[in-house]
Amino acid sequence: MQVYAFVGKTGTGKSYNALKVAKSLDIKYIIDDAILIKETKVIAGKSAKTEASKIASVKAAIFLFDDRKKEMINAIKKEKIEKILILGTSDEMVQKIADNLKLGPITKTIYIEDVASPEKIEEARKSRFEEGKHVVPVPTFEIKKQFSGYFMDPLRMFDIYRRESSNLYEAESSEKTIIRPTYSYLGKFRISDNVIKEIITYVVEQIDGIAKVQKVFTEKYIDGMRIEIDLQIVFGYNIPNLSDKVKKTIITSVDNMTGINLFGIDINITSIVKIK
Predict the structure, then answer these.
(1) Number of domains in the chain
(2) Residue 232 near residue 194 (C-beta atoms within 8 A)
């Protein structure tokens, strides 16, 4: 296996530029933030940013925890990887990851300064330290379950490549995910039950046939929640169709506005009213 490293200090844009570096070296596999990524799909691991503290996050990122180490080693063996790119904040860090995962010597190291301008690096540092954001080089749906309940945004990127032996250029689209860790430079970003209830109440009451949202109940789990809602509906509307529309509206709105996983929605029709 050929092992490559991509090194840059915290918040300088390593994860943001990871796919570009991997593509230039014809590498399909990346280890970043304790996650094994194949192109844009999470193969194994769980983000180190889900740990409760910075110290635990660092330990997770260099695979000091036996369960994380074992899972990653087994996944790498299963994939039969020929080339892999390791991301880290220092030469020492990427070497520790390679050693702990028994990957062998590092063939080549690329530094963030080799691929990003000083202006872009400063922009990335500002995003990290002033806004508490971290980029993961996979689409939002790939990382969502690991960060349920914390703010996330999809980031659509268009990279321009020149075709070989041609003057033509083509754009390649990729999606990255912006997350705020469980811990944060700005403190924890959590979404209260009241916010969820207000979002649901507002969007559901905009639906034709809904007279009133009487109550919203939430039941929390480690990586998501379950919703129960009491509704007063207008006479003359088809109840199954209306219930289905309410569920779809809740799922779409909660997903778009919060990123929280919903494990179920129970709808109770408490009363039917006539509107003159």
Answers:
(1) 2
(2) no
* CA distances to 31, 43, 264 from 94, in Å: 10, 20, 41
Looking at the fold, whether 25 and 130 belong to one and the same domain comes out as: yes
Length of the chain, in residues:
276
Q: Which tokens sit at 181?
A: 């860790």
How are beta strands 2-7 and 83-88 bridged, if at all? parallel
CA 227, CA 102: separation in Å to the nearest integer?
45
Amino acid of residue 80: K
CB 34 within 8 A of CB 61: yes
User: Rounded to two decimals, what is the model's pTM?
Assistant: 0.55
Q: Which domain holds residue 17?
A: 2-179
Higher-pLDDT residue of 199, 62: 62
Assign residue 224 the CATH number of its domain: 3.30.70.1350
pLDDT given for residue 23 in this prediction: 86
Q: How far apart are the first and last CA of the chain?
A: 74
Q: Across residues 189-195, what is the average pLDDT?
A: 62
Whether 176 and 136 have beta carbons less than 8 Å apart is answered as yes
* Mean pLDDT (whole number) for 236-256: 88
Distance CA 30, CA 34 (A): 10
Tell me the β-bridge partners of 86.
5, 31
Q: Which range, of 2-16, 155-169, 181-195, averages the lowest pLDDT? A: 155-169
Regarding whether 235 and 127 lie in a shared domain, the answer is no
Three-class SS state of 36: strand
Strands 29-32 and 83-88 come out as: parallel
pLDDT mean over 230-246: 93
Sheet containing 41-45: order of strands: 41-45, 35-38, 29-32, 83-88, 2-7, 106-111
